[in-house]
Amino acid sequence: MAPRETKLDGQVDAVMEASRAFVALVAQTLAEGEAALTLPQWRVLAIVNRYGPQNLKAIARWMGVHPSTATRACDALVASELLDRREDAVDRRRIVLTLSENGQELVDSLLHERRRAIAGVLREMPAARRSRVAEAMQEFAEAVGDVPEHYESPVDWAR
Description:
The chain is mainly alpha-helical. It has a single domain (37-148), classed as Arc Repressor Mutant, subunit A, CATH 1.10.10. It has seven helices and two strands, in the order ααααββααα. It has helices at residues 7-32, 39-51, 56-63, 67-79, 101-123, 127-144, 148-151; strands at residues 83-87, 95-99. 18% of the residues are buried. The model is unreliable at 149-159 (pLDDT under 50).
């Protein structure tokens, strides 16, 4: 690893370390869950849970992956009865994905477990530091945004 050259380098390193910790926490809650999910499958469930019914093209855009990758993740979730697939009422050529009842229960359970785990970590910190961490994380999340354009790949999948 190259020596830190700027203050920004140190800040990037700190955020990278926090990112690693969050991914580990997510992986742990997924491993403890009732269903064996991959991170891409969890991402599909989380997107549909937060933003409602989606089509495969939208899922691929949100995830920043080729549509075939999104299709494989969604097919596995449909086969596991965590995601429902149906024709769009307006355009029958389009497929709409929604959480099944089992999928919603699983998402709710995993989010509850993640909140519990995060609360446990925060309880270990002094109250003033918790507030600073929460404010910084909120600012970071707002800077990243949560719109598909932020996650789009520079690859043109239509080619």
